[in-house]
Amino acid sequence: MSTEETLTAPVEQNAVEEPLDLVRLSLDERIYVKLRGDRELRGKLHAYDGHLNMILGDVEETITVVEINEETYEEVIRVHKMTVKRTSEMLFVRGDGVIL
Amino acid sequence: MLFYSFFKTLIGHQVTVELKNDLAITGVLTSVDQFLNIKLDDIRVVDDAKYPHMMAVKNCFIRGSVVRYVQLPASAVDTALLQDAARREAQQPTTGGAHSISR
């Protein structure tokens, strides 16, 4: 008599959702990305990979230039100048610049 | 490998590459590799007056690591195909940067 042992263990699929799986849920949605160099992007996520390289569509880039007002020593007043650059086409963003 | 394949489909299109040093170059994409190094033909620096030292240069090779953005024509991109490929890519995470060169 052969005891048939049917292994009912399912195929190992990451049951735990990793951060990249959560990013996958945002495909085709508008997202906000923070980059190095005080830059921010808002655009529609079309593609991404494990390096966080991304393709964004209809994207708006915001570069923050910080000017420090040094008149008073007690309070340093920062004036943020926001320059908005609009790239309406498709933009490939390299992953090593992405912070958030 | 997703973006490598994606860029291969864009060979022949005019793109604008913005580098990490703020230099922006427009040219026709002739070649790309697995590191996303880029070769551009017939280039033109976007802000001529600011960056004159490329006046004599017609073609260039750009190391992938210095690229900040690549601006692409929206018409050349099939977004549905991209999203689909990205979904599949996510299920196979790149194990520690699979960049092996076998000679």
TrEMBL record, chain A:
Keyword Kinase attributed: no
Record bears the keyword Nucleus: yes
Pfam families: LSM
CC terms in the record's Gene Ontology section: Lsm2-8 complex; spliceosomal complex; U4/U6 x U5 tri-snRNP complex; U6 snRNP
Highest rank taxon of the organism: Eukaryota
GO biological process, one term: mRNA splicing, via spliceosome
Subunit structure: LSm subunits form a heteromer with a doughnut shape.
Job description of the protein: Binds specifically to the 3'-terminal U-tract of U6 snRNA.
PANTHER family: U6 SNRNA-ASSOCIATED SM-LIKE PROTEIN LSM3
Name of the protein described by the UniProt record: LSM complex subunit LSM3
Automatic annotation (TrEMBL), chain B:
SMART domains cross-referenced by the UniProt entry: Sm (SM00651)
SUPFAM superfamilies named among the record's database cross-references: Sm-like ribonucleoproteins
One BP annotation, GO: mRNA splicing, via spliceosome
Residue runs in coiled coils: none
Pfam families (UniProt xref): LSM
Domain of life: Eukaryota
Keywords annotated in UniProt: mRNA processing, mRNA splicing, Nucleus, Ribonucleoprotein, RNA-binding, Spliceosome
Cellular location(s): Nucleus
InterPro entries the UniProt entry points to: LSM_dom_sf, Sm, Sm_dom_euk/arc, U6_snRNA_Lsm2
CDD domains noted in UniProt: LSm2 (cd01725)
PANTHER family reported in the protein's UniProt record: SNRNP CORE PROTEIN FAMILY MEMBER (PTHR13829), U6 SNRNA-ASSOCIATED SM-LIKE PROTEIN LSM2 (PTHR13829:SF2)
Name used for this protein in its record: LSM complex subunit LSm2
Species in which this protein is naturally found: Acaulospora morrowiae
